[in-house]
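Lecture notes, continued. The same structure-token format from the folding unit now serves as the input rather than the output. Read the line below as a description of shape only.
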């Protein structure tokens, strides 16, 4: 492949801060054969179906790259439970698996390069309490802190009691928490009694 082709591709990626969809490459006369060649040469990385990261510049991926890449794969997906709590600063350590929420009607595949824990919600609850985070690399969606803590309480058997305790301790020290909002959501999800017991145990 010609040197100027690599330079052109690198420039396209840098203008987009490191990520590009396949469509942008094709629209700029970069062929699928050339894309495949750059993948094999380690010049670019496929981060999801139809999206790539530039490896030629040596640029480090952004802090929340997993969240960004998950939402590139499925723009409707929302970062939830433990991963959302990590984003909001309630947990110091990033969860081993990225927690993603999708509607029950959304059965599209989400092939990513890192472990994912996918959770399905009713269409109504899925669309509630969503925050859209804008970054120079792209946007992603995450549930607000109160909803996220509540989901962790509901998923205690999956995440483990010790991890839930860390979430609640972080929430107890979170200045902008709105426990009444958490409990309203818990009541609608039909586990308000359990949520209240946990909050009372932490004097929240």
């Amino acid at each position: 492949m010609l040197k100027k082709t690599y330079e052109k591709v690198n420039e396209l990626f840098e203008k987009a801060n490191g990520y590009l969809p396949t469509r942008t490459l094709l629209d700029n006369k970069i062929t699928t054969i050339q894309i495949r060649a750059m993948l094999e040469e380690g010049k670019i990385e496929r981060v999801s179906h139809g999206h790539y990261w530039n490896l030629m510049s040596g640029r480090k991926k952004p802090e929340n790259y997993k969240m960004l890449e998950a939402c590139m794969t499925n723009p409707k997906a929302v970062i939830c439970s433990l991963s959302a709590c990590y984003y909001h600063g309630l947990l110091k350590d990033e969860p081993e698996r990225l927690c993603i929420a999708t509607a029950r009607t959304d059965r599209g595949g989400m092939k990513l390069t890192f472990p994912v824990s996918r959770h399905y919600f009713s269409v109504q609850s899925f669309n509630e309490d969503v925050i859209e985070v804008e970054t120079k690399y792209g946007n992603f969606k995450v549930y607000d802190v109160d909803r996220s803590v509540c989901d962790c309480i509901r998923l205690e058997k999956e995440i483990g009691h010790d991890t839930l305790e860390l979430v609640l301790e972080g929430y107890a020290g979170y200045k902008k928490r709105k426990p009444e909002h958490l409990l309203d959501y818990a009541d609608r999800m039909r586990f308000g009694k359990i949520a209240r017991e946990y909050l009372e145990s932490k004097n929240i």
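Point for the exam: The two ends are 62 Å apart (CA to CA).
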